[in-house]
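Researcher: Sequence recovery benchmark, item below. Answer with residues only.
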């Protein structure tokens, strides 16, 4: 798969994983696991990129005596998910064109 396409898909998947509630790294990976495998190093690179793009915010809180980063989606992140849905319809249309049987 094209690396740029995959990168964009993974970013939207991460945003979708935190859409309903704040979450942290391990839980994001666990929630995504039934759909896609994602390494910790890849996840944290994506989270940093999304934070820099103002699609999520980060807060640190203590959990069981340790500090944990919690991620929250922003309006920019929600907008990106909606843009993806629109883009996906176009991608599906292109896919149908490319895979149609010859007449």
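Model:
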């Amino acid at each position: 798969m094209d690396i740029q396409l995959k990168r964009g898909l993974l970013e939207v998947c991460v945003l979708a994983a935190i859409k309903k509630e704040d979450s942290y790294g391990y839980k994001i990976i666990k929630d995504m696991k039934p759909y896609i495998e994602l390494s910790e190093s890849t996840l944290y690179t994506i989270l940093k990129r999304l934070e820099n793009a103002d699609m999520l915010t980060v807060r640190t809180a203590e959990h069981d005596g340790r500090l944990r980063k919690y991620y929250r989606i922003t309006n920019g992140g929600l907008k990106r998910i909606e843009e993806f849905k629109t883009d996906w319809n176009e991608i599906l249309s292109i896919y149908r064109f490319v895979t149609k049987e010859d007449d």
